[in-house]
Amino acid sequence: MKCVYKNIHWGAIVTFYIIALTLRLITTILGNKYPSHGVNYALELSTGIGPIIGALVAMAIFKRKTEYTITGKSVWKSIATIAVPCLVFGIIGGLDTAIICFMAFVYGLLEEYGWRGFLQNELKGLPVWQYVLIITVMWFLWHLDFNSRNILPFFFILLFASWGIGRVATDTHSLLFCAAFHGIVNFAMRGRLADTTYQVAFICVIVFWIAIWYFIDKPTNGKSVGIRADK
Asked: Strand 226-227 relative to strand 4-5: parallel, antiparallel, unpaired?
């Protein structure tokens, strides 16, 4: 039986989600059983590997394609989106901080390839409020470790993120940009924003991202970069 409705392949979505949930459960159990000592980047990254693996497997089995790519509509903007904040936070906090920032973006990409790159693309035929709500619920349940979270505030954070990062994906098609927004929130949750210098840097990074993606175009004829006048 063909599980397709409004060009949404529910069989592919179910496959994606089962894999994402299973890998999340496995990594969570392993993380609790063998807690890392100090900073274990491999263990931290593994907790987010489910969505990208699930997406790649579902896309391969069911021959699904996505309009969202790693660099989206602009390679240089996507690279700058990742490189500039790593440089800024590295200058402020040193090499370790730069590495933590970069790893936060890598982790964000692992998740965003699944939630936005695959799932949002599959659900885009629905009204925005519907696919945002579906993604939020699935994303919320995927986290599993509810004992360590304030459940209701966390749900609304994910709801806002599903809308906001979803809009970024729709506008730019860049999964690196989606990963950057996802990652910088995780980076900030490490307590960095308790410092005024980090607060200012955080705001400047967000402004920089909005400026390059929504107001500045890279020249194609050798002329200087200009502000976009048309929409």
From this structure: unpaired
Read off the amino acid at residue 174: S
Helix axes 151-172, 175-188, angle to 10 degrees: 150
Q: Which tokens in the block code for residue 203? A: 């705001």
Position 88 in a domain: yes
DSSP state of 71: S
Asked whether the CA dihedral 132, 137, 142, 145 is positive or negative, the reply is: positive
Q: What SS3 state is found at 16?
A: helix
pLDDT at 6: 64
Reduced to 3 states (helix: H, G, I; strand: E, B; else coil), residue 2 is: coil
The pTM is what? 0.88
Asked if residue 119 lies in contact with residue 141, where contact means CB atoms within 8 angstroms, the answer is: no
Question: What pLDDT, in 10s, does the model give residues 7-50?
Answer: 789 999 999 999 999 999 998 888 777 665 445 667 778 889 99
The number of domains in the chain is 1
